[in-house]
TrEMBL record:
This is Ribosome-associated translation inhibitor RaiA. It comes from the Bacteria. The gene is raiA. Pfam families: Ribosomal_S30AE (PF02482). InterPro entries: RHF-like, RHF/RaiA. It comes from Pukyongia salina.
Length: 98
């Protein structure tokens, strides 16, 4: 799986990149039919300035998307990947069990 990480209007972080890649690679080993992952890190525009992580996965069929707002980026990544895992589990059940 190819992983593309973009930091929108904020400085890049090697540790956050490594953390995100590690989490996504775990997902890729569980679901080996994933093709591509695009990750966007943004700073929220509301009063709290929460951290936003958006992840879009390319796979056979429609793309899967998850977004999460949290106090820090690590928690946002965990929540977004957890949401993706649920969606992938549903997709696997409907697609591969005929």
């Amino acid at each position: 799986m190819t992983i593309t990480i973009q930091y929108v209007k904020m400085p890049t972080s090697e540790t956050l990149t490594a953390f995100t890649e590690k989490r996504l690679n775990k997902l890729a080993t569980k679901y080996n039919w994933l093709i591509n992952a695009q990750v966007f890190f943004k700073l929220g525009q509301d009063i709290n300035k929460k951290s936003i992580c958006e992840i879009e996965l390319s796979l056979p069929g429609p793309k899967i998307f998850a977004s999460s707002k949290a106090e820090n980026y690590e928690v946002a990544v965990k929540e977004a990947i957890s949401d993706l895992n649920k969606q992938l589990k549903k997709r696997k059940e409907t697609t591969y069990h005929h």
